[in-house]
Amino acid sequence: MKKIEVTAADRRDRLEMLRIYQERGPQTEKTLLAAGISLESQARNTPWVAEQVKQAEAA
What we know:
Elements: H1 8-24, H2 29-34, H3 39-58
Helix pairs in contact: 1-3
């Protein structure tokens, strides 16, 4: 199994997506695009953000 490297840009986008979610709730692709997060980055990083939200709600 190959380990996936997380780039600095992806880490930044993940944290930004999580911050936006915490401040405003769920967002659309368009609002995340307006925040400077590309569709490709959204596709890669949404699962991580969703897992963080799930864990926070379970706590």
